[in-house]
Amino acid sequence: MSDLLELLGLGQAAELLSLSPPGWGRNLLVGLSRSLQIAAGAFGLGLLIGLLGAYGKLHGGKITRDLLAIYTTVIRAVPELVLILILYYVGTDLVNKASAALGGGPVEISGIAAGIWVLGVVQGAYATEVLRGAIQAIPPGQVEAARAFGMPGWTILRRVTIPAMMAFAVPGLANLWLIATKDTALLAVVGFSELTLETRQAASSTRAYFTFFMAAGALYLMVTLLSGALFARLEKWARRGQPSLKGGAR
Amino acid sequence: MADAIRVENLFKSFGRFEVLKGVSLTARKGDVVAIIGGSGSGKSTMLRCINYLETPTAGKIIIDGEEIKRRADGSPAERRQIERIRTQLAMVFQQFNLWTHRTLLENIIEVPVHVLGQSRAQATERAVELLQRVGLGDKMKSFPAQLSGGQQQRAAIARALAVDPKAMLFDEPTSALDPELVGEVLNVIRDLAAEGRTMILVTHEMKFAREVATHVIYLYQGRIEEQGPPAELFGDPKSERLQQFLRTVA
Questions:
Q1: Least packed by Cβ within 10 Å: which of A25, A142, A161, B180?
Q2: Which domains does chain A have, with CATH numbers?
Q3: High-pLDDT (> 70) share of chain A, %
Q4: Which of A138, A142, A147, A149 to mutate to probe the B interface, most B CBs <10 Å?
């Protein structure tokens, strides 16, 4: 086995990627795990913002709708890299100022929390539009029946609107999740050691750029493939009871 | 004893278009009031004003002696009051409006469990009885989209019965059905009338109205043109418009 790897010139790569030092495999996996934590947190925060945003856009007053329009327009117009720089430095600055105002010293902000906040705000803008479209796609009779039977607004949201919109929202949300996993790479610019930054450090220390970036690419690909399979199942569940359509998630 | 439903001098405008121009109606307990009229006569709007799915522009709705409180703009003044009254007025829609992501059984227990606070076991027991009664005992686990229109409408009637309503509102319950499926739904409604349930029925089925109704109202352009016991209204119509209407639908 090792002879075969040697023959293909992969013996060195296997050594570099091994999980124990001097291999860098563990660093890459730690980076991947941080990336996934941030992506999951940002996706969740984005969903929450998106749900509130979609409701505000559909049922809010004029001021709410205007503010939300500004939010979604600005966030979707400005390149994400720029947004990350702005939100990261503005966010940490604000927290420090608030702390100083309250008489405290500078606050150490956890990289993961900052990453989740920054990407979550970005995700929220897209999620607002995905969920708004999904809510509007619900046949009006579904909500009307709930109102006619005296369901309170909160129960309608929980029992009718959210489950009924899932069928229309899952494909868009799957996209958002994949974007979230890859946007974590942008956090490398603010020095957060997620998968991409870990890869770069490993690569520049060993000069094995090809090996490490291929490995990182393979990890991102695995995440995507796994997510695709999970979202396909989620979509099947969300579409339960709907007449079947050709083509599914993939 | 208070009347089950009283509607007093109801007006409804959509923008500048006045759909209802002062209509009144009384249903004592056990009455079956049929509302007939051409398309655009306002009959569905009148029915939908009774449970405030449409907000009347002016007029009073009194359910079992309790008047629905309204604000100056006509909207219900007390959310809890209107929700409680709606649970007592079960509605059956032209398009069935079963919740598509829930099985028939889940559809039937939804309001008893999540609005009326019954236990799941108790609601399920009753739901099974009701589904058997409307001839769908073998379809409890089916989703609405897997059923014919007639089956869906029978399930919708079971859903309405599950809340033990004081009165039932039928909004053209057979208009969306293929002709061969109309009979099975009318049979169910006929049974309900025979057991003395209070019902308001908007319908195009004149023969059926004549057979089950205790009182018939003919609406023409938002006004009550003629009303009375079915034998009189259908057998000896006074108004020329009603005579003409009956000739065109016969």
A1: B180
A2: 25-238 (1.10.3720.10)
A3: 90
A4: A149
Q: What is the CATH number of the domain that holds B244?
A: 3.40.50.300
Predicted local distance difference test score (pLDDT) of residue A31: 85
Tell me whether residue B237 is in a domain: yes
Does residue A9 surpass a pLDDT of 90?
no
**Which of A147, A151, A241 lies nearest to residue B101, judging by beta carbons?**
A241
CB proximity A159 to B under 8 Å = yes
Residue A128 CB partners (closer than 8 Å, separation 6+):
A49, A50, A53, A54, A57, A68, A71, A72
B110 lies in some domain: no
DSSP label of A200: H
Chain A interface, best mutation among B114, B153, B161, by max A CB count within 10 A = B114
What is the number of other CB atoms lying within 10 angstroms of the CB of residue B237? 19
Residue of A141, A150, A243 with shortest CB distance to B97? A141
- What is the tally of structural domains in chain B? 1
Say what the pLDDT of residue B112 is.
95
Q: What is the pLDDT of residue A114?
A: 81
Domain of B178, in residue numbers: 5-94+167-249
Chain A positions touching B102 (Cβ under 8 A) are 241
**Does residue B90 lie within any of the structural domains?**
yes
Is the pLDDT assigned to residue A10 strictly greater than 70? no
Query: By the CB < 8 Å criterion, does A142 face chain B?
Result: yes
Q: How many CB atoms lie within 10 A of CB B117?
A: 8
Closest by alpha carbon to B106, among B158, B69, B52? B158
Averaged over A84-107, what is the pLDDT? 82
Residue B16 lies in a domain: yes
